[in-house]
Write a structure and sequence with these properties.
By secondary structure, the protein is of the alpha/beta class. Helices cover 36% and strands 11% of the residues. This is DNA mismatch repair proteins mutS family domain-containing protein.
Length: 1402
């Protein structure tokens, strides 16, 4: 463009000559020689046009805005001849040049700042290529994720989505479902073309790093040929979200030109910033007209391992691959970058390659799955052991080619890697109570009656269905318990736009939790504050997979709506998981044995034939519905045989909304006190915290809540029996998964034994040994009712369950060694091993560490009676010791003492000559013994390592080598046998139907432990179990006897007693405790409704409610483009939709985010609607105009005006009492509160001065009320005013102060109330003013200084003995009485600010 001469893109003069140096007129003009732009001549020393960033951006948009007259007129801003006569070709040249200059400037700026986070390797790629990749990105992001919000890229993408582009699926499980076909392009061609301007603008605003990332996905290829597979668009978002400079620097090495699904280029240089860009420019795009070479010809040379990785990555394009390589798991390309970013690993050799040791694989997987990633883990077949290879002094052994297979696809739903866990030690066991359960797959089915939420636990194979939810309730559940990726969404049948691409699908998904978060990054998270050991609140990587309504199971006789919803979502989840299995080629060994396990955990278990998992394997554990006749899938099933909810009353409490849960401390807001932390002692286990959290977020049905109330009450007040140990391990779904996969270790089985034994003890808490356990007033009956609700089981009594527990215990105890258990099993007869299962010990001949290393991994796990071959190990160990004693120690005669220790008396060696090789599991010596006979020297030779390499510095003998080989083989066989026995035990438990007993025992222990811990904590805090009743026609929503804040100790708080008999209109000063009272009351109602203890005293009762709504102060929601007022109105709309006559509502500060007039009007209308709808609760406000609004008679009849009292101490200071009482308060004491919190005194003083101006103008606010009073019969003179003042005060003497008179000195320094009569020659024209003061003389002087009628004012005054606080109250009362009596008041503002005094309203 510049005649081959380079220019400085930062030079305005050179850039201006590049852009404007060619004059285009009628075609005859010659071009200005742009090569002179670098000279110092005065002719070209001036700029031909502006070159600022904004101008360059406008010029760069010419290619997409040339036909737009409005934008085209502003492209060239300097030369008229160019602007008016430039051709389309010239404008395109200028656009291209401007785009390159912008790119160069941004890249140079990044490099000069040495900022790895914003630099890129694409550098000066062609503008046409950049625009093509931009088009791909904008089109593709609609396919891979419409929830992205990253930098400028996300803003432009969201803008594009606003114009349309519905997607059947956001993200998918394979590259074939995310690639773009011709049909899709044709369907969206018009939309793409209509956004050309936006794409060009996006191109100019992207950072160099963003352009570098997007270039990796340019011209993505949809092909079945692995060699042409490029990077899946799924990885756009994770790459753009990288924050570590190391991770971003590795992105430079990625290349799409290698046609590698993970973008790994083994030949990429770690030094050059532009190596990838250079290679990509040299290799033509596959499929283009200019491409003649085969795509595979561009592939760099790679090892067989890398080829294997690429082949399998093509089958799992949206998963991270971990490949077992010896003692490490390795990843390449994008996968390695994710390990560096999220796991803190270092790249290998500065390349996009990373790995972790085998002992850290679970920790690495936990970090990845908590971020929402899937991880495909590949294992390698074990090599032939060293002792089985051909290995002698003359021969060598080679290593055969390693064979690898897919072991498991680990995800947030199945976070435990089920491989090699059978022989895990107790210390590292994954069943520890600290482990958090896996996330559930979640499906949301939208119907005309609301949303149906289906939660599928892949670990426990259970399903929870909640019907007729609002979008707010769905959002609450998703934030509280983030689902596994992806989230399934089924639109309603009536959604005519489904699949049409003409409506925004985002508008149909208001429940997505990340819509409520601050746009930090796409892995926004909440920190757990309850110590529940979980990763709840961490949204992580999340996609939405839309299922067509046609996939919903059709109604059938006998098939309930709940079952239909379950089948729909479970089948979708199994299809998703099955996609990983089908794409994986089985190894020859697996195909021959038909042993590949198709299950939700994707585990391949050898020698085990398993059928495919179906929806029938998943049990419905509990459901939540607001109506027994609700329709889950859009149809009403009249033939349903489902009877699960037959006992659910109309007043079943619906799941909490997100705002309600947040305000009550059930979410993760550090600014609000945690409710769960207040319910349990600090020593309570994390599963109990998780149980209570879900219990409150999804309130149980009435009968289950009553059972919990009975259980807690008995444990708290009535039970005088000792309880079984509450230390039984709470087994999570991981244990069930381990058993199904045959990976449960001996430590896991011991934990299961403890859980089963404790459950047996629980079953007998109310009965004698003969089995009489049917006691309705005992612990077991309510405990079983809660258990049936929590697990979905029906009809099991204590006796039946105890028998199933004993059967499972008997099977486990017959195999697993119980010597290491701390608990003595009381409910079965069992014997410990008679033969001690100890590690071999034969003295100092062989280092004890050698025997420990070979035997500790399998010893002490299985009883000797369950093994057939392990007993040979001591014999082999003894033979090995004898061989070493003779050949290495020089012992001539083998003797043992009484303890079986080999004696070394007479040995030629005084110190141990034996050397251990831990890496190769060898025993050898460093040199041939000096005492050996010359004829026997040849018996010593160099051993070989595990790879067959000769160890030149070690010696051994044939006898030792053979004995060592036999011992190692015996240990290996024993290990395999122990592993096989434990695996078979797991399978026997599954085949014998004992999983249900294990599952029930765990939940039974958890429920009792939770209730017991809660009862103990409540006793310590003085909490009580309030009575809950259905209410009938009662108007009272509850009687709260001394309710206090749940996060405070009773001795340090103020309690309130009241009858919630209507809708409280609560007014109070700032910081007086009204919000605390509302939150405390709502929490007490929720706890009581769920059957738990609450911070109230005995005698309290709560009417059962169908919905609880708590609305606190607002804040902006930038992610939803909502102001604080907009968010407030959205919550109120939800309140009015979901609440009715059986609802409890607590609303605070509605309408303060807008003008006082509009806010007061809206708040009044909302309050009236709530009261007319017979809602009960509290409505707090500082908009005091709401007190004067004319409400309907129906609304007025249920409104109860309440206030928070204040008091004055002996020094005249106003104090908050935090006590609820009847009345109103119209003085918020804002200035006093501001002063207490450190606002400068000057501000307080000025605010007080300005308040007088407000008072004089605010009198008009009550004018309409005053004018409604008939004044015709009122005697409005100073005598009548004196009478009113005397009656109000009730005592004291009125002092008359004529015009120009001063007040008596005796009144100075004393509180007084005075009335002024100002101006007028007749009664009708006189005006009146009421005030209070401690300095009457000064106040009269101030009033008279106003001039005119004020100078001749007449006054009356009375002393108030009780002080300033009472004087203010009397002032307000007198103002009200005078106004209602028809006096022409100058100001009535203080009449709405009555302070607390006796029974006077505020």
């Amino acid at each position: 463009m510049n005649g081959g001469t380079p220019i400085n893109p930062r030079s305005p003069r050179q850039v201006s000559h590049l852009l404007y140096g060619t004059i285009v007129g009628d075609g005859s003009n010659e071009s200005v020689d742009t090569t002179t732009s670098n000279s110092n001549s005065n002719t070209n020393a001036i700029n031909l046009g502006p070159t600022d960033k904004a101008t360059l951006r406008r010029i760069a948009m010419v290619s997409s805005t040339y036909n737009n007259e409005e934008s085209g007129a502003n492209i060239i801003v300097h030369a008229d001849s160019i602007d008016n006569g430039s051709t389309e070709k010239e404008r395109e040249r200028q656009s291209h040049a401007a785009a390159l200059v912008l790119q160069c400037r941004e890249l140079l700026s990044s490099l000069n700042d040495n900022d790895d986070d914003t630099s890129g390797s694409t550098a000066l790629a062609s503008t046409s290529s950049e625009l093509d990749s931009l088009e791909y990105m904008e089109a593709g992001m609609e396919r891979i994720g419409d929830t992205m919000s990253i930098s400028s890229v996300s803003k432009s993408i969201d803008a594009m989505q606003a114009n349309g582009g519905n997607s059947d699926e956001v993200g998918s499980t394979s590259s074939s479902s995310t690639a773009f076909n011709d049909d899709w392009d044709v369907e969206h061609k018009e939309e793409i073309e209509s956004n050309a301007t936006r794409q060009s603008a996006l191109q100019s605003t992207m950072s160099p790093y963003e352009r570098m990332v997007m270039d990796l996905f340019h011209n993505n290829i949809d092909s079945d040929d692995v060699s042409t597979k490029t990077i899946d668009p799924y990885w756009i978002e994770p790459l753009l979200s990288l924050t570590k400079s190391t991770s971003r620097s590795l992105v430079r090495q990625l290349s799409r030109s290698t046609f590698c699904p993970m973008g790994y280029d083994p030949s990429a240089s770690t030094l050059s910033l532009f190596s990838s860009a250079t290679k990509q420019q040299q290799i033509p795009d596959v499929g283009s007209s200019s491409s003649t070479a085969s795509p595979t010809a561009t592939l760099p040379s790679s090892t067989s391992l890398l080829s294997y990785v690429r082949t399998n990555k093509a089958s799992h394009t949206d998963a991270i691959l971990l490949i077992r390589v010896g003692d490490f798991y390795e990843s390449y390309g994008i996968d390695a970058i994710m390990l560096v970013e999220h796991c803190g690993l270092n790249p290998m050799g500065g390349k996009a390659r990373a790995g972790c040791p085998i002992m850290n694989v679970q920790a690495t997987l936990d970090l990845l799955t908590k971020k929402g990633f899937r991880v495909a883990v590949y294992e390698e077949e074990q090599q032939q052991p060293l002792h089985k290879r051909k290995n002698n002094g003359n021969g060598g052994g080679g290593s055969k080619l390693k064979t690898r297979y897919l072991a498991q696809v680990v995800s947030s739903a199945n976070p435990t890697y089920m491989h090699g866990l059978v022989l895990n030690s107790e210390d590292g066991d994954v069943s520890s109570s600290a482990s958090s359960p896996g996330r559930s797959y979640v499906g949301v089915i939208e119907t005309n009656a609301g949303y149906t939420l289906v939660e599928v636990s892949a670990e426990e194979r259970t399903v929870m269905v909640s019907e007729r939810l609002t979008s707010e309730a769905v959002a609450c559940r998703l934030v509280a318990y983030p689902p596994a990726d992806p989230l399934f969404y089924v639109p309603p049948y009536s959604n005519e736009s489904f699949g049409s691409g003409k409506s925004r699908r985002l508008d149909r998904l208001p429940f997505l939790p990340w819509r409520h978060q601050q746009p930090t990054n796409f892995l926004a998270s909440y920190g757990s504050q309850d110590g529940d050991g979980g990763d709840y609140g961490t949204v992580g990587k999340m996609r939405v997979k839309t299922l067509p309504p046609s996939l919903v199971v059709s109604p059938k006789p006998g098939l309930s709506d709940v079952e239909r919803a379950k089948q729909t979502i479970v089948s979708a989840f199994l299809r998703l998981e099955d996609g990983y299995h089908r794409s994986e080629k089985l190894s020859v060994k697996e195909e021959a044995n038909d042993d590949y396990l198709t299950s939700s955990s994707s585990v391949s278990v050898k020698n085990r034939n398993r059928r495919a998992v179906t929806h029938e394997d998943f049990a419905i554990v509990s459901t939540s519905s607001s109506s027994s006749s609700s329709s889950v899938c859009g149809h009403v099933d009249t033939d349903s045989s489902e009877t699960t909810h037959s006992s659910i009353a109309v007043a079943t409490t619906r799941p909490l909304h997100l705002e309600t849960a947040t305000q009550l401390g059930l979410m993760f807001d550090p600014a609000l006190p945690s409710l769960i932390s207040s319910l349990l002692p600090e020593s309570a286990p994390s599963p109990s915290r998780r149980f209570l959290r879900r219990w409150l977020l999804i309130p149980p049905p009435p009968d289950v809540a009553d059972a919990m109330s009975q259980l807690v009450r008995i444990l708290k007040d009535e039970n005088d029996k000792a309880l079984p140990s509450l230390s039984a391990p709470p087994l999570t779904g991981k244990v069930i998964s381990l058993i199904r996969a045959g990976q449960a270790s001996a430590a896991v089985h011991c934990e299961i034994l403890s859980s089963l034994d404790a459950a047996c003890e629980i079953c007998w808490l109310d009965g004698d040994i003969d089995g009489s356990t049917d006691n309705d007033s005992g612990i077991v009956m309510p405990l079983l009712k809660i258990l049936h609700h929590d697990t979905g089981t029906k009809g099991s009594n204590a006796t039946t369950m105890r028998k199933s527990f004993i059967d499972a215990m008997t099977m486990i105890a017959s195999v697993v060694s119980t010597q290491s258990m701390d608990r003595v099993l009381k409910n079965i007869e069992y014997e410990d091993d008679v033969e001690s299962d100890c590690i071999s010990h034969i003295g100092a001949v062989v280092p004890p560490a050698f025997f420990e290393r070979n035997e500790a991994v399998w010893r002490g796990r299985v009883k000797a009676c369950a093994l057939r071959h392990a007993h040979i190990v001591p014999t082999k160990a003894k033979r090995l010791a004898e061989a070493i004693a003779v050949d290495f120690w020089g012992v001539e005669t083998i003797t043992y003492d009484d303890d079986g220790v080999l004696q070394l008396s007479g040995a030629m060696e005084s110190k141990s000559p034996v050397v251990q090789d831990i890496f190769n599991n060898l025993l050898a010596i460093k040199s041939v013994p000096s005492w050996i006979e010359r004829a026997k020297v040849d018996h010593y030779f160099h051993p070989r390592d595990r790879n067959g390499k000769v160890l030149r510095t070690r010696y051994t003998t044939e006898r030792v080598q053979e004995a060592l080989s036999d011992y190692v083989e015996a240990c290996s066989n024993a290990r395999e046998e122990v592993e096989s026995v434990l695996t078979q035990l797991s399978w026997d438990l599954v085949d014998g139907g004992h999983l249900s007993a294990i599952f029930l025992s765990s939940h039974l222990n958890l429920i009792l432990a939770t209730a017991a811990h809660h009862a103990a904590s409540s006793n310590a805090k003085g909490w009580s179990v309030a009575k809950i009743h259905d209410g009938g026609d009662e108007t009272s929503a509850g009687y709260f006897n001394c309710v206090w804040p749940y996060w405070m100790d009773r001795s340090e708080s103020v309690s309130n007693t009241f009858d919630l008999n209507g809708l409280f209109l609560l007014t109070a000063p700032n910081m007086s405790g009204k919000s605390t009272l509302m939150r405390s009351t709502a929490a007490a109602a929720l706890l009581t409704g769920c059957g738990l203890c609450a911070p109230v005293l005995p005698g309290s009762s709560v009417r059962r409610f169908d919905s609880l709504f708590v609305r606190g102060a607002s804040a902006d929601v930038p992610t939803e483009d909502k102001s604080a007022f907009g968010a407030e109105m959205g919550d109120v709309a939800s309140l009015l939709r979901s609440c009715g006559s059986r609802s409890l509502v607590f609303v605070d500060e509605i309408g303060r985010g807008t003008s006082p007039k509009d806010g007061t009007s809206l708040a009044g209308a909302i309050l009236e609607q709530m009261s007319e709808s017979l809602m009960s609760g509290m409505f707090a406000t500082h908009l005091h105009g709401i007190l004067e609004l004319p409400y309907s008679a129906a609304a007025e009849s249920r409104l109860r005006k309440k206030r928070m009292a204040i008091a004055e101490d002996s020094q005249g200071q106003i104090n908050w009492t935090y006590t609820l009482e009847d009345g109103v308060c119209t003085n918020s004491l804002a200035l006093l509160t501001a002063s207490k919190f450190g606002l400068p005194e000057s501000i307080i003083k000025r605010a007080s001065e300005l308040s007088k101006f407000w008072d004089s103008n605010s009198s008009e606010q009550m004018e309409s009320v005053v004018n409604m009073i008939d004044r015709s019969t009122v005697m409005n003179d100073i005598q009548y005013a004196t009478t009113i003042l005397e009656e109000t005060v009730g005592k004291g003497r009125i002092i008359q102060i004529p015009p120009s008179y001063m007040s008596p000195p005796s009144l100075e320094g004393k509180s007084c109330v005075y009335i002024l009569q100002i101006g007028g020659s007749n009664t009708s024209s006189m005006r009146y003013y009421v005030g209070e003061t401690d300095s009457l003389a000064r106040r009269l002087s101030d009033h008279r200084s106003k001039g005119k009628d004020w100078s001749a004012l007449k006054a009356i005054a009375i002393e108030i003995d009780e002080g300033k606080s009472k004087a203010r109250s009397i002032e307000s009362l007198v103002i009200q009485k005078l106004a209602k009596s028809g006096f022409n008041m100058i100001s009535i503002a203080d009449g709405r600010s009555i302070r607390s005094w006796n029974d006077a309203p505020y």
